[in-house]
Design goal:
Elements (H helix, E strand, L loop, with lengths): L4 H12 L13 H21 L14 H9 L2
Helix pairs in contact: 1-2
Length: 75
């Protein structure tokens, strides 16, 4: 869900604004629509809580030769 978090937020918004499913397609009842939006929002909130403060993959920054030389002075 992480890589698609924003996508699912848009899905919930489109459902609640009755923009999805498109016209001409079978439409859910108001109860079904409300339940689907509630489920999506609950799952998004659970994901956000589980990953709160997790920056994801962090790549170590390489020092330039000048920065490395300065770091040796502070040892």
């Amino acid at each position: 869900m992480g890589v698609n978090f924003r996508h699912w937020e848009k899905v919930a918004t489109a459902l609640s604004e009755k923009k999805m499913p498109p016209k001409g397609m079978p439409q859910p009842t108001d109860e079904q629509r409300t339940a689907a939006v509630a489920w999506i929002k609950t799952e998004l909130a659970a994901y956000a809580r589980a990953h709160d403060g997790d920056p994801g993959r962090v790549t170590a920054r390489r020092l330039t030769s000048g920065a490395y030389a300065l770091s040796l002075i502070h040892i």
